[in-house]
Design a protein that fits this description.
Length: 244
Amino acid sequence: MQRIIIERLSVLEKDVLNSIKNDVQDERADMTISAVARRNFVSQALLVKLAKKMGFSGYRDLLFYLRQAQTEKEAKKNPQGSVAGSSRSLIRNYSSVLHEQFNDFFQESRGTVISVFGIENSELVAEFIVRRIMERENGFMAYKGCMMKKKDHKDKKGLMIVVSETGETETSVEMIKTAGRSGCHTIVFTANERSRAAAEADLPVIIEEKSWEFSDSNMFVPYAITAFILLFETRGETIKNEEV
């Protein structure tokens, strides 16, 4: 932000702006205009006025700018950390333990065929996952549909990935149960952390559905795809480094 613009702000406006910038660093902070106004003991109108005074069309544009600036700042400071930050914004239960377990499941399934399943909108995610795995040509094979029976890899752990937004689709739940009974690891990408699929899977990956930028749109499909890319690509780098 240009110094000349900030200098035109009142003392109160500068304090509020600094408060918002600090809150943006906390991914769990409620950044809706009503919440920010309450925390700073100011009116929503003042926040709108502040944004326009700085050249933005409104509060949401100001917030978007500050978030982008924070992301770029973190990426320059710590490129590896920015991956974790992106993952946390898309995966509600993200942690280093989840990431490591995801890595381990792929490692143990190397040399087998990974089954990926999804229906309706989730099928788009499943198709993408299969293509992404196969494109990398790094020892992994993937197949969209029911779990394939293990024949020649008795000493290998198979892997079943299920994509189900609600986590309550009967077919999806049965897929996970069947894979588990056959000794395969199971991962589910879902938006419902209390679903049966999340409870049955070895590793539930809970995906955000909404975005403040697109509050009226369901973002499960693009977010699930992006979350898989973040987990899978960083997993690939880990394996590559271990083999060198």
